[in-house]
User: Fold DUF4102 domain-containing protein from Desulfovibrio porci.
Amino acid sequence: MLTDTYIKSLKPAEKARKYADGGGLFLYIPTSGSKLWRMAYRFNKKSKLLSFGEYPTVTLKKAREKRDEAKKLLADGIDPAQHKKAARAAREAEEANSFKNIALEWQETQTVHILPAGRAHLLHCLEQHIFPHIGSMPITQIEAADILAFVKPFEKQDRLNQAHLLIQLCGRVFRYAIATSRARHDVTADLRGAIRTKRPKHHPTILDKNRIGKLLLEFDEHPGYYPVTCALRIMPHVFVREKELIWAEWTEFDLERAEWRIPAERMKKREMHIVPLSRQVLQILRELHRFSGNGRYLFPSARYMEKPIQKSTMLAALRRKGYSGSEMCIHGFRSMASTLLNEMGFNSDWIERQLSHDHRDAVRAAYNHAQYLPERRNMMQTWSDYLDDLREKARQCSETC
Assistant:
């Protein structure tokens, strides 16, 4: 039998040499001088050879353990070489089906409809907050508790939106794995109720008619960058979400039909949305077209014409006019329109459809982008006329008061 002292003393010879340890295990030393563990055995009346690695990485003790494990397999009628090959294939399959690999595949193939900034944000969340915890784990071995462990600290910090975002992101990866036959269950479904929800946020808005007129008048007289002025003037009339407006492209507009069709990938509910354009909005757009009509975006950045203005630009303009965060925000124009249009007696279904709020009937929602369109055209024109009236009253007051 071999000893460590003896093995260390062995030197390469002119020809390869074998040094037996017993039970089929031997040390093979080729002319290069490497010391390699091998095991000779017979299976189905055929001579076969098994490799255990190189000494001293694989110690004498470890080599004997591997030999004994191989003999147990032989006793059970299992070929150790085939068992080793199958185990290696299983490990490789687990690595290929790790949460990280599947998540990166999902991010690469299933988020192409999302704007570049959105895709970058998703990847950042994966790399910073999820991969360090479960990225290397086979997706089939991940349990709800594994996800809760790294999400719970966000709840303790009262970062509830972030906590729920991470759970939702994991869920999207799991559902993709299920669709591609690499998982059977979305474990994030078991986390329902595990993280408390945040109270709905009420966006501050102005509902006083005189103050609305004064605000609209200030937008008309805004002395800043022209596309920003136009964005401020248009927003109260169309009351879309801020992202939907600032990323608007000229190809989405049909000025002859007085329609703006916002593509599904930019909508919160991933459903194409039609915004009827009033005469007032069309006038602003025709004026703006002379400035940015040859480019891609309606509201190009002052520094980079190939990019739109930043999300904070409109809000910054609002703050410079003296409106605090408790008084008004850009999203507040949606609340303003919703409240006042209901007060004016318009059908609530028309209003909700124009606000592109979700519909409980998912099948119906897939086809409702044009729902109530004639009624909404009339409503949007009436709304613009109403805003014009408020602005003119504010102008008259400023001239006579």
User: Anything to note?
Assistant: The first strand starts at residue 17 and ends at 22.
